[in-house]
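Dear all,

This email documents one entry for the complex benchmark we are building for the journal club exercise. For each entry we list the sequence lines for every component of the assembly. Then comes the predicted three-dimensional structure of the complex as a token string, followed by one or two observations. Please use this as the template for your own entries, and keep the labels exactly as they appear.
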Amino acid sequence: MRTNIRSTGRDATFTETARRSQIVECAIETVCEFGYAGASLSRVAERAGISKGVITYHFASKAEILEEAVAVVFARGAEFAMRSGAFTGDSEPHDALRGYLESNLAYIAAHPREINAVVEITRGHRDADGRQVFGTAWEEREVLGLLEEIFREGQRLGHFRDFSPRVMAVAVRRVIDGFSFQVLAHPDTDVAAYTAEVVAMFEHATRAGTA
Amino acid sequence: MRTNIRSTGRDATFTETARRSQIVECAIETVCEFGYAGASLSRVAERAGISKGVITYHFASKAEILEEAVAVVFARGAEFAMRSGAFTGDSEPHDALRGYLESNLAYIAAHPREINAVVEITRGHRDADGRQVFGTAWEEREVLGLLEEIFREGQRLGHFRDFSPRVMAVAVRRVIDGFSFQVLAHPDTDVAAYTAEVVAMFEHATRAGTA
DNA sequence: GCGTTCTCTAGACGGTCGTACTAATATGTG
DNA sequence: CACATATTAGTACGACCGTCTAGAGAACGC
């Protein structure tokens, strides 16, 4: 009987850690290149230069790879935002929004392929019943909450005009997520200029006192 | 030898017209329900209550169905916008933008499933080489051009502030396209309120004289 | 009525999918 | 060294994919 490595109590081997990481990276690249529908385990294995059996050995299922890929990229983005210090959480709302936009767009500009892959996976990945794994409920919980909080705080302080935090949060995320397409389609995009445009746009869209 | 119906010079039969339309509708529904990756011809045929062969008979390939679906929905949306009169083309830029937003969101609210399917198809559909059929070039040509024109005209008249028409156009489209998810996830969404929020947001984001 | 064309069902085709299994090799420990 | 375990390539499996074909039924001009 096959030993499910993840369920045994032992520590992960050096090889296992490296392989899992390699496979996840190759899965991200493959999804970016061929899309969610075209990212088969055969193509992932081919890119990694290993046999398909290695993937089956280190992961229980294809879904586990994709879900780990999403988690890994999310963790990297959060770590990047933390490290950049652009978004400390206790900033004044205008600065918080600006920091959120700048750190997100900067990360995407530096790693457009993995963001594109994550967008593909979160959009396309479904369980056996056809339901989205990363559906609206997941997005509202994991992604939109923080933004809405910024907006509510800004409105409480009177820095932001009176708009729906939910609608604005969704708009911000859609614009941010779309940036990976822009960077991939036009690698020569002026990131600083694009970022300034987006920041200015949402500053005008949110600030109070001009209505 | 099988006769490729579309390439013969004869007129389309009553049956052919009806079948093609039915198959396209079922494909839209299937894509909406199972996503691009999960929308197989078997499922389309099952939904239509016909055998898979009928699809092959009326369409040369699966790609032809998907591409016709996109074209059909686009045509309906354009017809809706035309009929609603919200967007006449020679309006003052502020009104043009408002009309664009309102007619788009109204159509999506009325037909969220077909818009969702089109978004799925345009994002996921690739040719044999793995290249997106409805890629960035297509979007810029078919979708963004009109918006950019509105923005440029508004800037020329001094009604809009000085922003990048391209960035703003992309933002508008992302927000509009995302509305189908909102309506599908929350069917009880207050469409009028949501529309007013989006209109207000882009009016603040674009208008001159407050910077 | 007959004959032609249109339309459909049913099934087969080659291919790829995700997964499971086997047997061989690598690795590391006593 | 022997031995156990970790890791690998290779292959086989059943399921489903998109496409194709043979032949039966339906529709319709004559």
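Observations: Chain B touches chain A through 43 residues (CB under 8 Å). Residues 3, 5, 13, 15-16, 19, 50-54, 57-58 of chain B lie near DNA strand C (CB under 10 Å from a C1').
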